[in-house]
């Protein structure tokens, strides 16, 4: 199976082509950035596809991160993935950033729980907790940092995500210390591809995975549209 993976959810812009038959990455590229995903993504995908030697029509599936993450960044990646899937007549699947962060650690089947954490700003984090073997212990959610730190009772965890160091700095002194702290601007695009390959399209929709409403909201009491006004 040939998978094109795309990630623009957080502080990088990334794409990769995975060949599952040979268990090899045909090509991949990651550009660190906090803004400018819309301008960078399509040229990046073009370079990755050229380096892979794979045509869009040869792909079997497109995988894209669905969040949690930047509202604008998510829209960029999802729009590109859906557009490519539509043009190439291929299925598209969604992968959450939290599961992509945890995947390489879970693949080692360790003994420690894994906490994937993303900075949600306003002293909050998006997070998920799984066991070392991948069983869900705490479902994805958003919470104030002080509230989520109650998960320290689960034992010494492996912290991963762009908020990993934030949690480590505020980890309770009376709890077992984290066994590792992996602060990463975004998940490894290779694991986005592998999770996309394993996903069931019917159960992994390529739509935004929001755990709270966007910070930007339309102003209240907007005037009626002209057509509605005229109909009064």
Automatic annotation (TrEMBL):
Organism in which the protein naturally occurs: Bradyrhizobium ontarionense
Pfam family, one: TsaD
Domain Gcp-like: 34-157
Organismal lineage: Bacteria, Pseudomonadati, Pseudomonadota, Alphaproteobacteria, Hyphomicrobiales
Source species, domain of life: Bacteria
Membrane-crossing segments per the record: none
GO molecular function: tRNA N(6)-L-threonylcarbamoyladenine synthase activity
Identification of the protein by name: tRNA (Adenosine(37)-N6)-threonylcarbamoyltransferase complex dimerization subunit type 1 TsaB
Keyword vocabulary terms for this entry: Acyltransferase, Transferase
EC number: 2.3.1.234
């Amino acid at each position: 199976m040939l998978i094109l993976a795309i990630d623009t959810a957080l502080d990088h812009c990334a794409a990769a082509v995975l060949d599952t038959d040979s268990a090899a990455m045909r090509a991949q590229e990651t550009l660190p950035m906090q803004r400018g995903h819309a301008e960078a993504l399509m040229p990046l995908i073009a370079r990755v596809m050229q380096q892979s030697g794979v045509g869009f029509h040869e792909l079997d599936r497109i995988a894209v991160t669905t969040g949690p993450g930047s509202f604008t960044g998510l829209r960029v990646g999802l729009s590109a993935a859906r557009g490519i899937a539509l043009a190439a007549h291929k299925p598209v699947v969604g992968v959450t950033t939290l599961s992509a962060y945890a995947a390489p650690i879970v693949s080692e089947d360790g003994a420690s729980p894994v906490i994937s954490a993303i900075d949600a700003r306003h002293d909050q984090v998006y997070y998920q907790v799984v066991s070392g073997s991948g069983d869900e212990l705490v479902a994805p959610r958003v919470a104030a940092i002080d509230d989520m730190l109650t998960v320290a009772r689960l034992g010494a965890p492996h912290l991963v995500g762009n908020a990993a160091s934030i949690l480590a700095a505020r980890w309770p002194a009376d709890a077992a210390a984290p066994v590792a702290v992996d602060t990463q601007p975004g998940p490894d695009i290779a694991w986005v591809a592998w999770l996309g390959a394993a996903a069931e399209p019917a159960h992994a929709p390529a739509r935004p995975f929001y755990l709270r409403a966007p910070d930007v909201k339309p102003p209240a009491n907007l005037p009626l549209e002209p057509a509605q006004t005229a109909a009064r």
